[in-house]
């Protein structure tokens, strides 16, 4: 049986772009609870993003942490998900986005930086 071991979110929506938030997901059920605006929906959206590469809206900029709240001209968002596949092999999926703002024109653009899948087989 496949099982998501943990999820790590950095710089996505309200999650801090400077330090990752790591969630361990116990088996067989993980409950996600919290106050309004605490990031519950973002966790589900990050699971979908890690699995499919699709952001919740066609506007990727809205998915990455708001660049206007940061001091620099770039914000990087990343989602890492570690899970066990049906053969009990460990798999790590990592996807990253970058939002930049031009200094003169103030134009904001977002692009995909990286998408990687790493699989560790039982035999090494």
Architecture overview:
With 124 residues, this protein is mostly beta strands. The chain is 10% helix and 39% strand. It has 1 helix and 5 strands, in the order E-E-H-E-E-E. Strands 2-1-3-4-5 form a 5-stranded antiparallel sheet, covered by helices on one side. The longest helix is centred in the middle third of the chain and has 13 residues, at 40-52. It starts with a strand and ends with a strand. The model has no long low-confidence stretch (mean pLDDT 90).
| Main sheet overview | 5 strands, antiparallel
Order of helices and strands: EEHEEE
Q: What is the residue-averaged pLDDT?
A: 90
Question: Segments where pLDDT lies below 50 for 5+ residues?
Answer: none
What's the alpha carbon Rg, rounded to whole Å? 16 Å
Classify the secondary structure makeup into a structural class: mainly beta
- Assess the beta-strand content as a share of residues: 35-45%
User: What would you call the shape?
Assistant: globular
Helix proportion range = 10-25%
Q: Count up the helices.
A: 1
What's the total number of strands?
5
């Amino acid at each position: 049986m496949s099982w998501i071991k943990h999820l790590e979110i950095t710089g996505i929506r309200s999650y801090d772009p400077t330090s990752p938030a790591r969630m361990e997901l116990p088996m067989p059920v993980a409950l996600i609870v919290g106050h309004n605006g605490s990031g519950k929906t973002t966790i589900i959206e990050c699971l979908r993003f890690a699995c499919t590469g699709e952001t919740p809206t066609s506007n990727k900029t809205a998915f990455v942490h708001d660049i206007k709240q940061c001091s620099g001209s770039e914000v990087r968002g990343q989602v890492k998900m570690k899970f066990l596949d049906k053969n009990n092999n460990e798999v790590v999926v990592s996807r990253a986005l970058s939002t930049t703002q031009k200094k003169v024109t103030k134009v904001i653009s977002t692009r995909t930086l990286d998408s990687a899948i790493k699989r560790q087989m039982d035999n090494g």
